[in-house]
From TrEMBL:
It comes from Ignelater luminosus (Cucubano). It holds the Pfam family DJR-like_dom. InterPro entries: DJR-like_dom (IPR049512). It comes from the Eukaryota. Residues 3-175, 176-334 form the Double jelly roll-like domain. This is Double jelly roll-like domain-containing protein.
Length: 334
């Protein structure tokens, strides 16, 4: 039985890493091949082209990040499906050289620690297994939604999907906040939270809320109080990728941490008329010539899988039509 699954691991893992790991964790994960700036990865490969990395499973699946209990008398399998090519796993000085590189995985080990118990405890555990009690595995799963081509209009609604499972939104990647004129969150077509003039509201909230460590964590979201880090987000060709936690943009994502069941969620984004406020330039008169193109926008919505017994209880709760109270602090700009 499939407990947890992640598709398109290359994108999902990178998005999760950028918004989750602080400076110390990035140092710890260098041996896993993770380096936000890419300056350490080359040292993992020796002169003959051999490499060895140790990747914590919590970097790839939510179940390993959250579920810390013991599993007894079950067969565990980790199924890995390799990509069609290795282009996204290679760092090269010239992009046209990547297609010629082939990565060979000689050996793959899965290290599964186990716990040895005394005979008395072993007998108790065997009795528990014989009782056939149901095992609840609670964790936050990761789900990737990709919008293939962003519309050129300034107003676009993206309906992610209709869900019958327990879900709670956490992160939204919408480019740089200064590109947006309005963002709102809707449940079943009803506006729950809305922020207008996102560029000013988000910056004001950031200046009064984030400490030094949080500012470092949010550098990959394009946030830098001094502005000295933002230029490093754009490569030589003018491409950029930022990962913005939804709590930076809407109060509902900052305060509301409960589970949402059987509702249709929509995140409506209205882009600004121009990109002047999203551009850092040495001369202000050059900003009007710059146009920012959003090629792809991802909204990462983790969900929680529950046991059948719990699912029945939740469905009964839905059928009871009890009112859902969503308490949070909304942001309003005057």
């Amino acid at each position: 039985m499939v407990v947890d699954r992640v598709r398109n691991v290359r994108i999902t893992a990178v998005m999760k890493a950028y918004i989750s790991y602080n400076a110390n964790e990035c140092i710890r994960l260098q041996n896993a091949g993770w380096s936000p700036t890419g300056d350490y990865v080359s040292s993992l490969v020796d002169e003959k082209g051999n490499f060895m990395v140790l990747i914590p499973a919590e970097m790839l699946l939510g179940v390993f990040e959250d579920f810390k209990k013991i599993l007894l008398n079950v067969r565990k399998e980790l199924v890995i499906i390799r990509g069609n090519n290795d282009i996204n796993a290679v760092l090269s000085a010239a992009d046209d050289d990547k297609s010629k590189v082939k990565v060979v995985l000689a050996k793959v080990y899965w290290r599964v620690p186990h716990i040895s118990v005394a005979d008395v405890t072993r007998l108790k555990l065997l009795k528990y297994v014989e009782s056939s009690n149901q095992l609840d595995i609670g964790f936050r799963s990761w789900e990737l939604h990709e919008y293939p081509l962003l519309q050129t209009t300034t107003n676009h609604t993206w309906a992610i999907k209709n869900v019958a499972q327990v879900e709670t939104p956490r992160y939204v990647i919408v480019g740089i906040a200064h590109l947006l004129d309005e963002i709102r969150y809707e449940l079943n077509g009803m506006v729950v939270d809305r922020v207008r003039n996102v560029r000013i509201t988000a910056v004001m909230k950031a200046y009064i809320s984030y400490n030094a460590n949080e500012c470092i964590r949010l550098q990959n979201a394009g946030w830098s109080p001094t502005g000295d880090y933002v230029s490093s987000l754009v490569d030589e060709k003018g491409n950029f990728m930022v990962l913005i936690p939804a709590e930076m943009l809407l109060g509902v994502f900052e305060d509301f941490k409960k589970i949402l069941l059987n509702v249709r969620k929509e995140l409506v984004i209205i882009r600004g008329n121009n990109d002047i406020n999203a551009v850092l330039s040495a001369a202000d008169d050059d900003k009007s010539k710059v146009k920012v193109v959003l090629a792809k926008v991802y909204w990462r919505v983790p969900h929680i899988s529950v046991a059948d017994v719990t699912r029945l209880k939740l469905l009964k709760y839905v059928e009871s039509s009890n009112q859902l109270d969503i308490g949070f602090r909304s942001w309003e700009l005057h």
